[in-house]
Specification:
heterodimer, A: 188 residues, 9 helices, B: mainly alpha, 78% helix
Chain lengths: 188, 162
């Protein structure tokens, strides 16, 4: 896993034009603002859809509420791009950061959870004859979704506080949370 | 005044405590509150702009509670952040821009929710009016978030006397 991380850091660092654009005075702040705006869009659409499945505003047809979801997905797509921009600029600050590992895990669970929703519940809750009350499966999925996205935000915010430091000699683990070979930053 | 706040026990704890429940938790709460407050505003704006006309606008008022929870969570966490770094925020003009944009955003929201309660009113708004209010809300909240992010890059004094 550590060698995979080293490989990934080198790969991300090899995209030079993005990093030089991000290192201009406005690059990073603009990407970060966009990241936060699209995160709000995601919560305002997917999060509110989850709340609807959980029973808030029962008189709104679930199918109508679902129309907002593609906008959240677009927001997520933009965040994936801006997120990659951060990674390509400071790869070691993320790839060896335990908070980033958690963030990726939470995003993955949120994604698989969304797939589970479309596989098990989407048709039932959006059918013309659907009950205003979502079935229990859909409610569990909605609760997991909300929890995961909140966890993603927390892990994202904690990134700064878990910045990796250079590894001490001989320090190793299956998943590196310190920067190996920091002294000879071969990828620069 | 700033010096006095900065030397208070609460300010020092918020700023310097190594506990994850101090500064990191407050920042996280501020982000979550932002997402729900700006998110509900974005949803209402999208609805005004014609996304998902099947959502009855009157029913959207159920979500205003979510917005208020986010708003108050952010007012509280924001005050904590201000106690931690009063000079940093108060000497930065962008901080006042952020507060102004939030005030405008909440004023737009107040206009919309006043109408949300009465069934025909908002539906009878002309299309250009709906569009104008929807876009104004999106621009204002986007601006408030951007201004908030920029605070980390544009401050001139971190502490009183620095």
């Amino acid at each position: 896993m550590t060698s995979f991380q080293i490989w990934l850091v080198r790969l991300l660092a090899s995209v030079k034009p993005v990093a030089s654009l991000m290192r201009t005075p406005w690059g990073w702040p603009i990407a970060e603002s966009l990241h936060f705006i699209c995160l709000s869009l995601l919560i305002g659409t997917v999060g509110l859809f989850d709340l609807r499945l959980l029973g808030l505003a029962r008189r709104i047809p679930i199918a109508a509420m679902h129309r907002l979801v593609p906008w959240g997905l677009a927001g997520f797509g933009i965040n994936l791009v801006s997120g990659l921009c951060f990674l390509m600029t400071e790869p070691d600050q993320y790839i060896y950061n335990p908070s980033f590992h958690w963030k990726v895990l939470f995003i993955t669970v949120a994604g698989m959870n969304a797939l589970a929703f479309y596989a098990t519940s989407y048709r039932r809750v959006t059918a013309a004859s659907a009950s205003p009350d979502a079935p229990r499966t859909a409610k569990v999925i909605a609760a997991v979704s909300l929890t995961m996205w909140i966890a993603v935000m927390v892990a994202g915010r904690l990134l700064t506080f878990y910045r990796p430091v250079p590894c001490r000699p001989g320090e190793s683990a299956s998943l590196a949370t310190c920067i190996p070979g920091y002294g000879n930053r071969y990828w620069k | 005044m700033f010096r006095w706040i900065e030397s208070s026990a609460l300010s020092v704890w918020t700023r310097e405590s190594t506990s994850v429940l101090a500064y990191p938790a407050i920042l996280s709460a501020h982000t979550i509150g932002m997402a729900f407050a700006a998110g509900v505003n974005a949803a209402i704006a999208l609805r005004l702009l014609g996304v998902s006309p099947g959502i009855p606008l009157v029913e959207m008022c159920r979500y205003t509670r979510v917005l208020w929870i986010g708003f108050w969570l952010n007012a509280a966490s924001g005050v904590m952040l201000l106690i931690a770094y009063p000079t940093k925020a108060m000497t930065n003009p962008i901080f006042y821009l952020k507060l102004t944009l939030i005030a405008i955003g909440m004023a737009i929201f107040a206009v919309v929710t006043r109408q949300l309660g009465r069934e025909p009113a908002l539906e009878s708004w002309t299309l250009p009016k709906k569009r104008f209010v929807g876009i104004a809300a999106l621009v204002t909240w986007g601006g408030a978030i951007t201004a908030g992010r920029l605070l980390a890059y544009t401050y001139r004094h971190l502490f009183a006397g620095s």
